[in-house]
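Form P-L/3: holo structure prediction, ligand zinc ion.
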Amino acid sequence: MQMQDQSQTSEPTKECYRCGRQLPADAKTCPVCGRRQYRICYCGNRIPVNTAECPHCGADWSDSTRVKRKKSRSSRLNSAALLRSAGIGAVIALVIAGLFNIFITYFATIGVQGEALPDDFFGLLDMASVGLRRVAAAWWQAALTRRGSILAFAICLAVGAGIGAVASLAKVATRKLGRRSKRGSSRRRSSRSK
Ligand SMILES: [Zn+2]
Ligand SMILES: [Zn+2]
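OUTPUT (holo model):
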């Protein structure tokens, strides 16, 4: 074992976890930044400082700040996450744009009243606002012409709600009165018997 280690010392086989300098595989400290490259695991073995799991006993070192620093420095993971969120954002933007386009086209179709839709977006937007106003006006007109029936409907609702409220109040009141009248009658009886 020791013979093999000595034959490999001249080869730079790993990077310093802190400064990235190439070091011999068995280097204990980095000559540039002076950081220790090994730690002593719970099992007594020397393991590289940036190893998340001890190869000898399986101890979990992933919470170690040195291991975490090494992980956070990997830019490949960050760029992948960035790419994914950018993709999701693009899809959401496309969906919103599609829905917006459907609404605009719908109201613009009402706005032009059977004529051809304008080609440019702002013309379409203009027509959409015209259509929207037309729809709102139509609703308002419908409300005005059915004022009587809407009023009747509102009165019906109010009367119904009033009756319901009165009925439930009456129920509570009769229950309370019933209890009181029982007590009252017993008192009356006792007073009569005097
Ligand atoms: Zn170093
Ligand atoms: Zn170990």
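COMMENT: The radius of gyration is 41 Å.
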